[in-house]
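Our preliminary data section would be incomplete without showing what the modeling component actually yields. Below, a chain of 74 amino acids is followed by its predicted structure, encoded as tokens that our downstream tools consume directly.
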Amino acid sequence: MAYEGECMPREEAESLARKILIEHESSGCRYFSNGNVAKGESWNPLTESTFDAGLVVTDAVAQCHFCIWFQDED
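Predicted structure:
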């Protein structure tokens, strides 16, 4: 995140993101993050790392929740 280093091929990351969102696209799902980095907006850190970002999904219908979070140091 600090130097925009690639951890996996972009196509693989986008495919994984699509699968996660498709799996949790019911009307009972809610999505939360700590900012919109893509738009250059500031964020509220969850960790003490220099950079962090992630997604929390809650699904009231299926009664499941998950979190995927990334952090990096400069």
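DSSP finds one helix and three strands in the chain. Residues 62 and 68 are 18 Å apart (CA to CA). Preliminary results of this kind motivate Aim 1 of the renewal.
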